[in-house]
Design brief:
By secondary structure, this protein is α/β, with parallel strands linked by helices. The protein is globular. Helix 1 runs parallel beside helix 2 and helix 7 packs parallel to helix 8. The model has no long low-confidence stretch (mean pLDDT 93). Helices cover 41% and strands 18% of the residues. The chain has a 5-stranded mixed β-sheet, sandwiched between helices. The protein has a 5-stranded mixed β-sheet with strand order 8-7-6-9-10, sandwiched between helices.
Length: 346
């Protein structure tokens, strides 16, 4: 492919409850629009049927805004990249159907994207043409989100290997479920982070899972937290309110300790000192501080994404599409979304 070619990718992300569209031109971000869905807060979690309906309402205005903000015309778009999975099937169907229709009407290629791969490649989104802050290959990426906790060796843009992953709940789920136990509204992870800043991380101890190798487990921790709260409420009905900041600081400290232990082991075993973090939980201030501390101690070169690229967003889908476009990795109109996908099979 001619390196001088002007490559403009429109990215579509609709895997969960955020409808997002972004435009990337030759690797440089031109727009990244996101429409959230407040409707789920009343239910304490994402309701799939409501999510897919909201995507249907949001997708055309969001795409229109992304194209206008990028100051391009539809005719300039080289290809459209969309999240094929993993995610909520109804939500993915909306994005997939829109992308197929847009590609067909515009006569441009269609590019399927693994949402998890997108999180990793968010590190390669350039803010301008002179931006050279991207990780060097190979690097280790700790991918931590609501549904996934993985350690990945990234050898090239599209060459990734998962060397450790959760065998049950993900770190993000642990945050949200523990938040729910103490009465915090959804999404609880950011609220735990906020309250934890005012608390003592050593105030309470929780059992840490003993899982061999580089895999994670958070279900036992979640259960021990539930029993801890239950037992203390029996002794003192006001226990949560009187100790909320310390509870949040302690559970956050434990989750981060578990994440960091496996990452340190992976870095030692592989000898890789180029370390990145991605996914929604990478916005957590406690995790960022822990990573910074270990990076200084172990001489890691650390890469933490901008907050805009930690949660679900179409910029990460568009940048992945950019690299797939250069390799000619396109799909046909018969493509269907998958609720479950893994990086190794991508």
């Amino acid at each position: 492919m001619n390196n001088q070619e002007n490559i403009v990718i429109l990215g579509i992300e609709s895997s969960c409850d955020d409808t997002s569209a972004a435009v990337i031109q030759n690797g440089v971000i031109k727009s990244n629009e996101v429409a959230g869905q407040a409707v789920h807060k009343a239910y304490g979690g994402v309701v799939p049927e409501l999510a897919s309906r909201a995507h249907q309402q949001n997708i055309i205005p969001v795409v229109d805004q992304a194209i206008k903000k990028a100051q391009i015309s539809r005719d300039e778009i080289s290809a459209i990249a969309f999240t094929r999975g993993p995610g909520l099937l109804g939500s993915l169907l909306v994005g997939t159907s829109f992308a197929k229709g847009f590609a067909l009407a515009s006569g441009i290629p269609l590019i399927e994207i693994n949402h998890l791969q997108g999180h990793v490649l968010a590190h390669f989104i350039k803010e301008n043409e002179n931006d050279e802050s991207q990780p060097q290959f190979p690097f280790l990426c700790l991918l931590v989100s609501g549904g996934n906790s993985q350690i990945i060796i990234v050898r090239d843009y599209l060459d990734m290997e998962v060397i450790g992953q959760t065998i049950d709940d993900a770190a993000g789920e642990a945050f949200d479920k523990c938040a729910k136990v103490i009465g915090l509204p959804y999404p609880g992870g950011p609220l735990i982070d906020k309250l934890a800043r005012e608390g003592n991380p050593e105030a309470f101890k929780f059992s840490e899972p003993k899982i061999p190798g580089l895999d994670y487990s958070f279900s036992g921790l979640k259960t021990s937290f539930l029993y801890f709260i239950r037992d203390n409420i029996q002794d003192n009905p006001d226990f949560i309110e009187e100790n909320k900041s310390d509870i949040c600081a302690s559970i956050q400290h434990t989750i981060i300790k578990v994440l960091m232990a496996k990452l340190k082991r992976a870095a030692k075993e592989t000898g890789i000192k180029e370390i990145a973090v991605a996914g929604g939980v990478s916005a957590n201030s406690g995790l960022r501080e822990a990573l910074q501390k270990e990076a200084e101690k172990r001489d890691w070169k650390l890469h933490i994404p901008k907050f805009d690229y930690t949660t679900d967003n179409a910029a990460m889908i568009a940048i992945t599409g950019y690299y797939k476009y250069q390799k000619g990795e396109f799909v046909g109109q018969d493509v269907a979304p998958f609720a479950r996908m893994v990086i190794n099979n991508d």
